[in-house]
Amino acid sequence: MIGEIALLIKGLDTACKMVRTGLDRKKDIEAMGSEISSFFASKEEIEAKIDEVKRNQGGYAGSALEEAIHIEQQAQKIDDMMSRIGKEYSRQGKSHKWAKVKKDAANIQKNRDFNLAQANRRRKIIKDRKNDDFYLAVKLVAGLFILMIAIAGLVFTLAIN
Predict the structure, then answer these.
(1) Tens-digit pLDDT profile for residues 98-133
(2) H helices within 92-160, ranges in order?
(3) Are 94 and 29 spatial neighbours (Cβ–Cβ below 8 Å)?
(4) What is the rounded CA–CA span in Å between residue 86 and residue 10?
(5) Where is mean pLDDT largest: 11-20, 48-57, 84-93, 140-149?
(6) What are the angstrom distances between the C-alpha of 102 and each of 57, 96, 106?
(7) Which of 8, 68, 132, 155 is 20 to 30 A away from residue 40, measured at CA?
(8) pLDDT of 149 higher than 60
(9) Can you say how many angstroms the Cα of residue 110 is from the centroid of all Cα atoms in its chain?
């Protein structure tokens, strides 16, 4: 787990460096598509891994303070790079495109969150139905067993008389 996080951090650092180098050279923002895509891919991977570590509690072997510092450093690095990319769009007179990109990203994330919530709701419904089906089967078997005992008792009573 730690090695995987270290590799992801290294990938994010490399992607940030490539974007930073392109921005420092005043390269056209649209010509830097591969560098920016690489940054966003690394950003997504590291955010997913941070969420996984937070959810799994214990996926990180260092101290809690060290983990919090690493998470905060990566979040700060991502925020700084996002700000720098936004400033570059503005510098190149394309701030309207950056605003559209951010709006589209918010809509995409909202749709992803909605779809995830729907999928979780469906899984819960299916799980509840399976539990209900199991309990129904147990009740039917128990009822059948009681019915067999009652019939056997009735037959025994009639046989004795």
Answers:
(1) 888 889 888 998 999 999 999 999 999 888 888 888
(2) 95-160
(3) yes
(4) 23
(5) 140-149
(6) 32, 10, 6
(7) 68
(8) yes
(9) 13
Residue 65, token pair as written in the block: 């303070």
3-state SS string for 54-80: HHHCCCCCCCHHHHHHHHHHHHHHHHH
The tokens for 104 are: 């589209």
Neighbours of 23 (CB within 10 A): 19
What is the C-alpha to C-alpha distance for residues 102 and 107, in angstroms, rounded to an integer? 9
Q: Are 77 and 10 in contact (CB under 8 A)?
A: no
Examine residue 104 and state whether it is found in any structural domain, yes or no. Answer: no
Asked, for residue 69, whether it belongs to a domain, the answer is: yes
C-alpha span between 12 and 41 (Å, rounded): 9
Round the CA-based radius of gyration of the chain to a whole number and report it: 29
Q: How far apart are CA 30 and CA 85, in angstroms?
A: 11
Residue 121 inside a domain? The answer is no
Question: How many domains does the structure of the chain reveal?
Answer: 1
152 lies in some domain: no
Can you give the residue range of the structural domain that contains 52? Answer: 2-93
